[in-house]
Design goal:
This protein is mainly alpha-helical and 483 residues long. 43% of the residues lie in helices and 10% in strands.
Length: 483
Amino acid sequence: MSNKQVRTRFAPSPTGYMHVGNLRTALYAYLIAKGGGGKFLLRIEDTDQGRQVEGAVEIIYQTLRETGLIWDEGPDIGGPVGPYVQSERMGIYKEHALALVEKGAAYYCFCAKDEGAQSSNTPVRYDGRCSRLSAEEISSRLNSADGWVIRQKTPQDGHTTFSDAVYGEITVENAELEDQILIKSDGMPTYNFANVIDDHLMGITHVVRGNEYLSSSPKYNLLYEAFGWDVPEYIHCAPVMKNASEKLSKRHGDASYQDLLEKGYLTEAVLNYVALLGWSPGGEREIYSLAELAQVFSVSGLSKSPAIFDTLKLNHINAQWIRSLSEEQFHALALPWLRKTLKRKDIDARLLAELLHPRCEVLSDLPEKVDFFDVLPDYDTELYVHKKMKTTRESSLEMLRKLRPALEALSAWTQESLHSALFGLIEKMDVKNGVVLWPLRTALSGKGVTPGGGLELALLLGKTDTLSRIDDGISRLQSELGN
């Protein structure tokens, strides 16, 4: 298989939003293909018609396009081994299932759903009784109105060994394997059967999937063996967990790619973080673009241990991607979030975005960082006390009383005039900057953390609002101190 062109596939079921684990599978398959100079295929696995969600296929397309995981062959662009939608390949599965029946590697089963179940075993599995029917009995039943399925006939003795790039060699006793259904009573193939047929016919060389499919791999191998086909390289990935005991799950409302975007994460950061969920590039570096990931990705860096979805780590990576944006790029991304909160139109959004840029981890942080511009919150005067700045309530009251006339006297309200007034007062009083600037920032914001210091806040708020908030601060401190 080493001489073959690398061909990988992402084969999602159209059942809703793109879960983080699905995105990781797509990413790893893409990186293996691109790192090996090969092709990345998209296949839609829609044989389970009951679970389909309207619009889900478009979500798959949109997600892959936004993240840059562009497929070389797929339903919308075609390719040499289409169709790339399983429901359009029904005759192919039936043909191959019948070929297995001819070979004696599969058989017709006429049992009702629970008939032939071995209840003494855990989990419950079928006892293979229809595999022992005579040719006459099979012919008779096929000609009657009875429903039937086609089951794989697994050997009852010996063992099956398969190799996985992450977990190594795994051997399973054949007696433990159930005769799985290949073609259902409605004529649709099962997921496991359609997967094997499609992967072979599409020339897939590397199969990336979750480790929940490890237990099915021996049955896949027996199918490959029955057809006389080469087995692709398996890369089974450990699950992504929300904590030590629970997997991330669409069913339980855990974060999808779309959810993360709506929470203010950047696409590049999400993809970067997802790549590191269960994979290590080695070394200290952790920020990678998609192109850089394609250069350094290796399955040898995949871990057997589950990966915990760590929001703090995601925030850290997202913050670094935000820092890498130009001021123009950040302003464009920040503006919709600022507009969710800021009602007043006189705030210089460009200057505000410039101040927020180095202080933002996630775009959804922005509204709470700027809410005080519209309405000054009801704050505790304890905010004026800052040991590092060497400020107290008494010193803050004194500074605000001195600041007010100095600022009111300004005829021009610019960064230069404000800087001159504030630092002129600092120099005149021979105090550290914080002794003057901390009380000003507190009075203007009512918060301990703000985008920018007192000078920048005064510039953004304007003269009237600045003086009004200084008056409010003086009033609060006077009331507290009684003077």
